[in-house]
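sanity check this record:

:::
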Amino acid sequence: MERKSLTGAFALIICVIASMLCSCAESKLKLAAEAANKNCPVSFGMIGEMTSVTYDGNTMEFLLTMDEEFTDIDKLGSDPERMKTSLMAWADNEKTRELFEMIIDADASLTLIYRGKTSGKEARAELTSSELKKALDSPMATAEEKLKLAIEQTNLQMPMDTGTGVVITELVDEGDVVVYIAKVTDLEQFKMLSGDIDNIKNSQRLMFKMMGPAEKMFFKTIVEAGKDLGYMFCADGTDETIKVIHTNAELKEFF
């Protein structure tokens, strides 16, 4: 369940892409794109993959094929300006800056295409050379600002059915802790969970160890913001809630 609940942090994918692209020895944009494309597809875990990287002389294009069980392409594309803002906020990441600078030097643009694996639907985010330059010239985003954008992007995907009788309805920042609100659809299942908190936490920790790159980046954002991560379970028919907390120190163990 935990891996599915993290898949809305699409703004962080750009950092994963940049890390791979900028690891190329070649400095020319076309050669870098060709080298990156040879490594495709690159898996992002359960959320999907980076299928291709191309450069046509004007636009560097990344095609991401997303599993629609976890990604609502329509919601993702409903606010393209928010998608752009989320990507621009990561300009202070060293690898991302290198990527942006390469594209600016070529007077090109950057396009991310999110394509549904089953439907073929697409959501696009395009940043022009001038927008990339503006991002580089802007003050660096704080850890809190990055986290806020990541939470907003995640909530575009809600509700998220985990397929285990639990539906993630919202991700909220409660100050010291970032909390996934999870509704258990069966009251009896909820009652069983209420007496098994330690096992729930241990199971979640095992899932954390299998996180994909984008999920690790999101967790790192929480850690850098100095916050804990929590899951609050609720169910119809009871006022009781179950809360499982992973402290900031515990999250650091996964990096």
